[in-house]
Amino acid sequence: MMANPLRAEVVRLYKNLLYLGREYPKGGDYFRDRLKAAFTKNKSVQDPEQIKAMIARGEYVARELEALYYLRKYRALKKRYYEE
């Protein structure tokens, strides 16, 4: 079983990614299925260092998703106010 502090961090990351995935360009269902598959594939990992590395990768993915959404919003606003 995973150590409790890491388990809480993994659950928090999963929920955060699930929330961010709602606006994914290919659809929330697509993102949720891929997210669940990724977490299920790695559920048997026991080594705390490996778990921390995977958490760091997940946080990187979350930041990339946020950047994608900000860029999409920026482009939409730019289209409204500026002719290209």
Describe the structure.
The chain is mainly alpha-helical and 84 residues long. It contains three helices and no strands. It has helices spanning 4-20, 28-41, 48-81. The chain is elongated and about 55 Å long.
Give descriptors for this structure.
single chain, 3 helices, elongated, ETFRF1, Complex1_LYR_dom
Distance between the termini: 56 Å
Order of helices and strands: HHH
Q: Please give the share of residues in helix.
A: over 70%
**Cα shape:** elongated
Describe the largest sheet: none
Tally of extended strands? 0
Count helical runs: 3
Give the low-pLDDT segments: none
Assess the beta-strand content as a share of residues: under 5%
Radius of gyration: 16 Å
Mean pLDDT: 88
- Structural class category: mainly alpha
